[in-house]
Amino acid sequence: MINLESLIPLQQLCVYYDIEMSFLINLNNFDLIEIRTIEHSQYVHKDYVVHIEKMIRMHHELDINMEGIDTVFNLLKKIETLQEELITTKNKLRLYEE
């Protein structure tokens, strides 16, 4: 069962951020966000809002196209994964040093 409290209607995001619905559809097409359709309405999980805000800024302020946004976010995910692996490795190393 999907908790509707954790979902935000796309139309609400479009009005709040003054963006076109097509921008959010394109983000979904690039697998940068996940749009859910429930009873003929489209929603996005509230966890995506921070990412959507960053993508809007990239697009409007830096004039980065959808392919560029996709590349940047994939690189950011890789960096985050590498940072997590580095922390894990450092923690293991500390165990052996003691």
UniProtKB/TrEMBL annotation:
Name of the featured protein: Transcriptional regulator, MerR family
Organism for this UniProt entry: Psychroflexus torquis (strain ATCC 700755 / CIP 106069 / ACAM 623)
